[in-house]
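Write out the bound-state structure for iron/sulfur cluster.
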Amino acid sequence: MLSLPFPPHRDAAGPFNRQPKGIRLNLPMATPFLPAFPAPATDPPVHPPLRDSHGRVIHDLRVSITDRCNYKCVYCRTGEMGAQYPELVIDEYFRLIKLFAGLGITKVRLTGGEPLLRRGLLELVGELSRLRTAEGKPLDLALTTNGHLLESLAQPLKDAGLNRITVSMDAVDAATFERITRVPGSFARVLAGIRAARAAGLAPLKINCVLLRGFNDDQIEGFARFAREENVVVRFIEFMPLEEGRLWTPEIVVTLREILDRVGRALPLTEVPPREASETARRYRFLDGVGEIGIIAPVSQAFCGACSRVRLTSDGKIRTCLFSQVEHDLYGRLRAGAGDDELRAYIIRTVYGKEARHHIGEPGFLKPSRSMVHIGG
Ligand code: SF4
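---
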């Protein structure tokens, strides 16, 4: 049973008493948008775009620029352990991202830990906004933050060239929010940050809420109203086994189906087609046209078949999948004096070997070598 530093919310039946419907895992490859997997090609393509051996085009890079965080969310960080991995200097992130952009990356998302803690962030965003993709277009620049420092940084980030921002937020009432983050006064700060980001024109403004049964699933209907009232896109995320404290069980996952039922009962929804096959969220608009939500369902409706993402950790390691058991030391090669050609070749080879999919809930599933706070989402 999940043991958390505060009592679960009370509801009549009590989520602990209700046997959740068994989670039926859809084979991650069965993405309806994609044909069955082509046979793996033998040699990596040498020219953009970046591809893996399953034929997927990899155009989305997520870069953690710090392992530090100013929150201690109970399901993410045990609170005892601070930062565990070093950071590169800002220019080194720029050099590595530039290599990826030249190989076909078109979207860069800056993450952490908490990226707004990083000095030099505005300069990095400015430099990245002047970079061009292999096709000569500007990069699509996004950032994920807990929002605590956003009120004062929203406009400067926009002015520096940031396009979009996502705020991680797991409750819409101050008491629950601050029990989760373990930071007093954090709710008001984040709300002010969200409103400042909207005023600065960082759009679409997305709110990511990780749902855990018996912990914050009482927030679902409140978040649906929040999406409409604050004109933000709330995305509910199924809890993945990526936490630091090793709390995950299948029973704790609130599935896409349940979320849809709960929101739809209060505010009817209609599904919206994805903008692109690799989009992680299933999108739903409220029938009255006011607002939108998304559901990211990596456990019950996995989407690995169309995955277009790779990650760079705060200490310069490539992770080809969130659930990778191995990491690839790109920064180590840079430090050892490798030139750009050698680093490019290493990136191409590494991405080519990207894992086909995750194996959550399957016999022999291994939790990844790093927890989410040290990967960066
Ligand atoms: S990162 Fe890994 S687990 Fe996530 S969608 Fe891609 S292949 Fe699947």
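---
Residues 60-375 form a domain with the TIM Barrel fold (CATH 3.20.20.70).
The chain has nine helices and 14 strands.
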